[in-house]
Amino acid sequence: MKRYDYLVNVLSERIEQGFYPAGDRLPSIRNMSSEHGVSISTVQQAYRVLEEKMLVEVRPKSGYFVTFPADGDGQPSTKRRAQAALPAVCRPAQRPVDISQWDQVLDMITSARMSDAVQFYRGTPDIFPPTLKPRNLALSRASRHQNLEAFQSDSIFGVLGLREEIARLIIDSGNYINASNIIITTGCHEALSIAIRSVCQAGDIVAVDSPSFHGVMQTLRGNGIKALEIATDPVTGMSIEALEMALNQWPIKAIQLTANCNSPLGFNMPDERKKALLRLAQSHDIAIIEDDVYGDLSYQYPRPSTISSFDEDGRVLLCSSFSKTIAPGLRIGWLVPGRYYDRCLYMKYISTGRTTSLTQIAVTDFIKQGHYSQHLRRMRNQYQKNLRIMTGWVNQYFPCDTRVSRPQGGFMLWIELDKQLDTQRLNKLLEEHNIAVAVGSIFSASGKYRNCLRLNYSQPLNEIHQQAMQLIGRTIKEMMVLK
User: Fold this and answer.
1) What's phi and psi for 102, nearest 5 deg?
2) DSSP label at residue 25
3) Which terminus, N or C, of the chain has the lesser number of Cβ atoms within 10 Å?
4) pLDDT at position 12, please?
């Protein structure tokens, strides 16, 4: 495929998905050349092809603009699409930065919240559906386990039965891993922390998707590691072209990303781009730390493959947990460290040592009885239904220029507002009404995305949630009038 054909495909997909809505100006030829690492003539050729396809039109001295959808007679319509545009690809700082934003993260996780607050800020799933009743029974059985085995401290590797069940589960993601290659951790956050500390040290640089999980940001910060944010497309994920340019310019030690059901953007990175990213890591001989904590909640079935499933030389450290599928309070995660197994095991030993056996035994029982797969089917349906409702409320109550992600799984919605709007100030105003959102700046190493927010739609949505969304939209509009 010629380079301009690739650009045509990327831009056509972005236009179709609403990333560039009808009437919007496309990036300048020079900016597209820089973003994708191609020549100006290549971009010009791609734009000419899009013009021939009647997807864009050129306006003298103004640039290229997306045409409006065609009417029945094949002519461009004068009506805009009803669907909100996708969030823009941010152009992060093209240099490693020291991570900030700890104060905002701390405020989010420690602020006193009233029990009846509408908590859109949380990263937790629905933990009360009927499909989780067997979980409670499994915990009860584990606590009565013969010889009080459940209260014993298991080996550093984790309960063997659970590792065997995980090995069977991750076959769906394309991974064929022996149970002996899996390390049980205290949640996915610890798995990520172990992985980072196993391949990096203070002063190193890690390439991350942008926006990215705030927990990873703070783990890098705590270990004296700099982050290099890589431009990330809301449909296809981390820009391979931008990553390649960064790898050629900086001594990057590892790549950390969430390729499936990304949080907060919600995309599933296409397999070809996963393979391309893996080839880049191989050519530069660096590690990939893959967070797959939302992978089992993909709306498509079979669920998408992990980058790890294409890895043949053990450079991918795969991290996940049951925190987003069963319950965060179980604190059961796992790490498949590949070639870094010995180092990761040592890091596990000096951090938390062994992981509690009680919840491991209960989760093993829950999976063996077939309850886990049944539960996943229900939650995928619930979250996908909630997504349609939540997106409808955003379109109905928020300003018309609001940009909204199109999650392919999980239960997080990323919203981009006017660039002049500060979501930290918005959150303070909402707290007066007992509503809380996750502000966008905590998902960036350098505090970008101040005009963005993340909303959780995991709980069964009702009139209270609708009224809260209406109030959020009204508050945003009032802030825009006063700006």
Assistant:
1) -60, -40
2) B
3) N
4) 84
Looking up tokens 């010009």 gives: 44
**Rounded distance, CA 143 to CA 137, Å?**
10
List the structure tokens of 58: 């050129």
The 10 Å Cβ neighbour count of residue 431 is 15
Residue written as tokens 């431009």? 231
pLDDT digits (tens, 9 = 90+) for 233-261: 999 999 999 999 999 999 999 999 999 99
Q: How distant, in Å, are the alpha carbons of 16, 164, 233, 359 from that of 13? A: 5, 40, 11, 44
Structure tokens of 263? 């949080």
Between 83 and 274, name the one with better pLDDT: 274
Percent helix, strand, coil in the chain, to 5, is 45, 15, 40
Spatial strand order of the sheet with 412-416 comes to: 403-404, 412-416, 452-456, 438-439
* pLDDT at residue 67, rounded to an integer: 82
Tokens found for residue 477? 């509009």
* pTM, to two decimals: 0.82
39 vs 43: CA distance, rounded Å: 7
Confidence of residue 7 (pLDDT cuts 50, 70, 90): confident
Of 369, 174, 383, the residue nearest 298 (C-alpha): 383
What's the token pair of residue 89?
């690809």
145-196 pLDDT per residue, tens: 655 565 666 689 999 999 999 999 999 999 999 999 999 999 999 999 999 9
